[in-house]
UniProtKB/TrEMBL annotation:
<keyword id="KW-0479">Metal-binding</keyword>
<dbReference type="GO" id="GO:0004521">
    <property type="term" value="F:RNA endonuclease activity"/>
</dbReference>
<keyword id="KW-0963">Cytoplasm</keyword>
<keyword id="KW-0862">Zinc</keyword>
<keyword id="KW-0255">Endonuclease</keyword>
<feature type="binding site">
    <location>
        <position position="105"/>
    </location>
    <ligand>
        <name>Zn(2+)</name>
    </ligand>
</feature>
<feature type="binding site">
    <location>
        <position position="115"/>
    </location>
    <ligand>
        <name>Zn(2+)</name>
    </ligand>
</feature>
<keyword id="KW-0690">Ribosome biogenesis</keyword>
<dbReference type="GO" id="GO:0005737">
    <property type="term" value="C:cytoplasm"/>
</dbReference>
<comment type="function">
    <text>Single strand-specific metallo-endoribonuclease involved in late-stage 70S ribosome quality control and in maturation of the 3' terminus of the 16S rRNA.</text>
</comment>
<dbReference type="GO" id="GO:0004222">
    <property type="term" value="F:metalloendopeptidase activity"/>
</dbReference>
<dbReference type="GO" id="GO:0008270">
    <property type="term" value="F:zinc ion binding"/>
</dbReference>
<protein>
    <recommendedName>
        <fullName>Endoribonuclease YbeY</fullName>
        <ecNumber>3.1.-.-</ecNumber>
    </recommendedName>
</protein>
<comment type="similarity">
    <text>Belongs to the endoribonuclease YbeY family.</text>
</comment>
<keyword id="KW-0378">Hydrolase</keyword>
<dbReference type="Pfam" id="PF02130">
    <property type="entry name" value="YbeY"/>
</dbReference>
<dbReference type="InterPro" id="IPR023091">
    <property type="entry name" value="MetalPrtase_cat_dom_sf_prd"/>
</dbReference>
């Protein structure tokens, strides 16, 4: 089950469509959907988590905590709506497009994809693009 929680004024317009898409993404990676919680927040909220749990004193758009068991995906994914807006402007894409990228990015981590090195990052971007394209087909 995919849940959406809000620690900011932001709210998704299409929770059911997003949850359905993310469920299809999980299935397309031969994984099972467990309980995944998205928590939408602001920079300050996510920065505190980054410092407290990861010892990183930086702003970020997403932090995911993976509690998966075998092929069943579980976890908490924190998303800074402020970072997503800024990144969308920086990358010259719509807010909705950047939001989809961030949402699927967390799932891709749970599926075992990394983004620390250049090769890993290229594969991650490729997988994100592939999964974002799945959303457009379903609408």
């Amino acid at each position: 089950m995919i849940n959406f929680n809000y620690e900011t004024d932001f709210k998704l317009d299409n929770e059911d469509a997003i949850a359905g898409w993310l469920g299809n993404v999980i299935t397309s990676e031969n994984k099972k959907e467990g309980e995944i919680n998205y928590i939408f927040c602001d920079d300050e909220y996510l920065h505190k988590i980054n410092v407290e749990y990861l010892d990183h004193d930086t702003l970020t758009d997403i932090i995911s905590f993976d509690y998966s068991m075998g092929n069943e995906l579980h976890g908490d994914i924190f998303v800074s709506v402020e970072r997503v807006k800024d990144n969308a402007a920086d990358f010259n894409v719509s807010f909705q497009e950047e939001l989809k990228r961030v949402l699927v990015h967390g799932i891709m981590h749970y599926c075992g994809y990394k983004d620390k090195g250049e090769v890993e990052e290229l594969l991650m971007r490729s997988k994100e693009d592939e999964k974002i394209a799945m959303f457009h087909v379903e609408q």
